[in-house]
Amino acid sequence: MVTATRLRPERLDYLTELHASLEAQDADWEAVLALDGADPAQLPEPLAADPRVRVLVLPRPVGAACARNFAVNEVRTEFMTWADDDDVLPRFSLSSRLHHLRNTALGWVAGYSADLSPDGSLQVWRCPTPPGRHEPGQVWTCWPSPHHTIPIGPTTILARTSLWSVIGGMGGLVQGEDYLALKITSLAAGELLPQVVYHYRKHPHQLTSQPHYDELEDAARIFAWRSGNDLASALAPKPGTGPGAA
To answer: Which residues contact 124 (CB under 8 A, 6 or more apart)?
Structure first.
């Protein structure tokens, strides 16, 4: 699992909770934690003491997308997923997805996410993509325009590590970078499980709650949608759009 963090004081407890949720998994795991210009001395003790957490210290802030992509260089596992430093994995999140990947020829497996409110309540978000197996490119048809709801929660996707490299990880956007992760669904067949595999924490300090977030949201969505749409078209060209077409 790859996580980027700047170890902001208001998010350290959340990061510790993420680690605790990893410890509660019934599958073997390894995490690469990219410190995006942060002081490693601020790392919470439970993570610093866990040999399964490998820390990548970046000398200056580079942004979440770049930090995550650098962290991919350090991944040693066959399968990989992402998590933000303020979110939580429910029990069986890893094992349920790994079971499907290890017993099939699928390239990725995803699930539902649930919003985690400050009072501890959960509200399940059922993405537009229907549960079940999806051939390459099918998921993208569930995202008809940049301004529609994204087809799958990007951080719910567990995939073969090699495929993440093919799509360039999370690109280089300053926000909305995880939209680019959706392109992996065009590279290989996958499956959406009708179960919650990720808890998305809602809190005042999250990026999407900041005053200037909306200023670049449209641009990020449009770039990610066009990039993914072009990839899906290139991999499965329609009649009359191949080489030599006018």
So the answer is: 112, 113, 114, 196
List b or e across 153-189, with b for residues whose CB sees 16 or more CB atoms inside 10 angstroms. Answer: bbbbbbbbeebbeebebbbebebbbbbbbbbbbbbbb
The DSSP symbol for 44 reads: -
Of 168, 183, 153, nearest to 70 by C-alpha is 168
Structure tokens at 11: 């998010």
Whose CA is closest to 75, among 18, 22, 3, 1? 1
| Residues 95, 27: Cα–Cα separation, whole Å | 5
Per-residue pLDDT of the chain in tens (246 residues, 90 and over written 9): 999 999 999 999 999 999 999 999 999 999 999 999 999 999 999 999 999 999 999 999 999 999 999 999 999 999 999 999 999 999 999 999 999 999 998 999 999 999 999 999 999 999 999 999 999 999 999 999 999 999 999 999 999 999 999 998 888 888 889 999 999 999 999 999 999 999 999 987 776 666 776 788 889 999 999 999 899 888 876 665 555 554
Token pair for 55? 């820390």
With CA atoms as reference, report the closest residue to 154 among 184, 120, 191: 184
Q: Is the pTM of this model over 0.90?
A: yes
Question: How far are the Cα atoms of 82, 109, 136, 217 from residue 132, in angstroms, in the given order?
Answer: 21, 10, 13, 30
H-type alpha helices, 64-133: 64-72, 93-102
Judge whether 94 and 29 are in contact, CB under 8 Å: yes
Amino acid at 217: E
